């Protein structure tokens, strides 16, 4: 694997220097309580900087040896790049920040065309995020809120693909119709190997199609429940698609951190990975899906 530089919130880090596990789809600070056209949700936020810092620090110092977090809170989701930099510095866990335009209820793009939206992403990638000097290292999470992407969401996805092609950054998606989102990105010429498809469905067949397209199936242990996630993960491994699998915890609201009784960022390590071991998954495969695959996804376009 080539030794390239990853853009983290505290500066460039050599990919080869990341030795521990990678959480490729997390939220460390987010606020999605209010949106347009859907019900507000008072629990759809996370602003517990000291708590999150402590959880990441503990994971780094534990046997889990957390080595990197990819933070997918982008435009429209309450992103706070300065807070991410403080969390990374306090926990000593490198954090990659993101750019991108999330689903329509949270992102007021109006009738802006693809060129304008692409320019907005390029400005953040080139000049930094929110005037902080933090440079995004990933585009995402981009996607859709409903069953199908709306025309505005499709324009945001196309803009993400075009910005990725210009900058060689990876892309992460989120949405119910994962295959439709992937199809839009691939239709712009973006290689599947540079896309992590956030998959929250229970259909193993759809997950297989994502992997067969060369993209990564990104599973969150908090999403469907760890048994359902384990079923999808084990099915992909059994089918020979282990190299296309990413796993994360997927914390996205305050009730999920340990301080308020939630499982915290350790949920992946405490629940899903032991379940995969019980099913006979070897340590080499667990290393593949928790370290090698996410690093490959992040660096595929940079080599």
Quote the distance from N terminus to C terminus.
9 Å
**What's the CATH architecture name?**
Alpha-Beta Barrel
Which ranges are low-confidence, i.e. pLDDT below 50, for 5 or more consecutive residues?
A: none
Count of spatially separate domains: 1
Helical content (DSSP H or I, runs of 4+): 25-40%
Specify the overall morphology.
globular
Roughly what fraction of the amino acids lie in strands?
Answer: 15-25%
Widest sheet, order of strands: 8-9-10-11-12-13
Please give the CATH class: Alpha Beta
State the CATH superfamily name: Metal-dependent hydrolases
Please state the CA-atom Rg, rounded to the nearest Å.
17 Å
Q: Tell me, rounded to a whole number, the average pLDDT.
A: 94
Write down how many β-strands occur, each being a DSSP E stretch of 2 or more residues.
13
Would you tell me the structural class of the helices and strands?
Answer: alpha/beta
Order of helices and strands: EEEEEHEHEEHEHEHEHEHEHH
Kindly identify the CATH topology.
TIM Barrel
- Count of helical stretches: 9
Main sheet summary:
6 strands, parallel
Short description:
By secondary structure, the protein is an alpha/beta fold. It has nine helices and 13 strands.
Please describe the topology of this protein.
Elements (H helix, E strand, L loop, with lengths): L4 E4 L2 E4 L6 E6 L3 E2 L13 E2 L2 H13 L4 E6 L9 H11 L3 E2 L1 E2 L14 H14 L10 E6 L7 H17 L3 E4 L3 H10 L7 E4 L5 H9 L3 E5 L5 H13 L6 E4 L18 H12 L4 H17 L4
Helix pairs in contact: 1-2, 3-4, 4-5, 6-7, 7-8
